[in-house]
Write a structure and sequence with these properties.
single chain; about 375 residues; alpha+beta; Gyrase A, domain 2; Elongation Factor Tu (Ef-tu), domain 3; six-stranded mixed β-sheet; about 35% strand
Length: about 375
């Protein structure tokens, strides 16, 4: 896709005004960094960072069979959600692999919002439509109507509190409410993709610039920094949050990806349940593990894991971790090599470098 065809979020001019380096990302013109990935990463870990995530997809599911429909297409147990609560889940194929990973927001028993990856919005929407036969549900792709801003970091609550009529100290992690932010009607959720405390604010497109500027101004005294896709990736990796297209896709099952905690096999039938149940009973041939480099070097996405000159696995994500100050990554390894402390080698630009399996998440914030 050439640059003239790229979609733009309502904050595009704001990013340019702030000197962001813009790159094409899954069909969107997005900021990859402003002052630098390390600088932005550290701001989120120690103060606050603000991200434009308006490219994410939002699919609304309404109707008397909304719950039954979502129980069929996702892995987690939607019946356990209260109004105003959110959970993370897999959207699965009959093979137990990922169409996508997503958040499910429950407004009412007949009204939900699915928040999906930007790269998969159209595919996910089509998949929902394909699976709705026999269910009394209305499914609408609301993505073009929403802007989304993520405010992340230990200073997030202090920054957002004066800008909203909601009581943020009372909002628990993975809950949301409707309220005003900078005078505009929004959905505010205590969620994020960084491993820090924080909020994601969904607004009308026309309100996004005002909300962004108000957050930036309020956050100045708290050390807020605008952050791009680069820092978003290093932050989520430190927190071991899966990235679709890297760590999970249509070739990896929910169990292989180490996401068994979003798999509720006892809830009844859903897409892929039989395969996943069988895989659980028979045991996994491979697993996604966290690793640290022992030798000097950074293992990147797609690099081969080798043993005795043979490829036995691959790196799904890898980077220098700015807060931890070490090279880390995720890799699919044979199950027998997934124990913590197991050493293995990665082909980094023609050199076999040593790495070791470590406990994840690599980073966990202090409560």
């Amino acid at each position: 896709m050439n640059e003239t065809n790229l979609k733009k979020t309502p904050l595009n001019e704001e990013h340019r005004r702030l000197g962001a380096k813009m790159v094409p990302f899954v069909g969107w013109d997005m900021p990859v960094q402003y002052t630098g990935v390390i600088d932005e990463h550290m701001a989120v870990r120690t103060a606050a960072g603000i991200f434009d995530v308006s490219h994410m997809g939002e699919i609304e599911v309404k109707g008397k069979d909304a719950l039954a429909f979502l129980q069929k297409i996702t892995t987690n147990d939607v019946s356990k959600l209260d109004e105003g609560q959110i959970h993370y889940a897999g959207l699965t194929y009959p093979e137990g692999t990922f169409v996508d990973d997503l958040l499910v927001y429950k407004f009412k028993s007949d009204h939900y919002l699915l928040v999906v990856n930007a790269s998969n919005t159209d595919k996910d929407f089509e998949w929902c439509l394909k699976n709705k036969t026999g269910f009394d549900v209305q499914i609408v792709n609301r993505s073009p109507e929403y802007a989304q801003i993520a405010l992340q970091g230990p200073g997030a609550e202090k920054i957002l509190n004066p800008l909203t009529d909601l009581s943020l100290p009372d909002m628990k992690y993975y809950w949301f409410a409707m309220g005003k932010v900078n005078g505009a009607e929004c959905i505010v959720s205590r969620t994020g993709y960084t491993g820090e405390d924080g909020f994601e604010v969904y607004s009308k497109l026309s309100d996004a610039v005002g909300i962004w500027k108000a957050m930036m101004e309020e956050g100045m005294k708290s050390g807020i920094k605008p952050a791009g896709l680069g820092a978003r990736d290093t932050l989520r990796l430190e927190a071991k949050m899966a990235l679709y297209g890297n760590d999970i896709d249509n070739t990896t099952t929910v169990l292989e990806a180490g996401l068994g905690w979003v798999l509720k096999l006892e809830k009844g039938n859903f897409n892929g349940r039989d395969v996943l149940l069988k895989q659980k009973e028979q045991g996994l041939k491979r697993k996604l593990v966290g690793f640290e480099m022992v030798d000097k070097g950074i293992a990147r996405h797609g690099y081969d894991v080798v043993k005795g000159g043979k490829k036995i696995g691959y790196v799904s994500s890898g980077s220098h971790a700015p807060f931890l100050q070490k090279a880390i990554g995720l890799a699919y390894l044979p199950s027998e090599m997934s124990e913590i402390g197991t050493e293995f080698e990665i082909d980094v630009r023609g050199k076999n470098l040593k790495a070791v399996v470590v406990k994840t998440p690599f980073y966990k914030r202090q409560k």
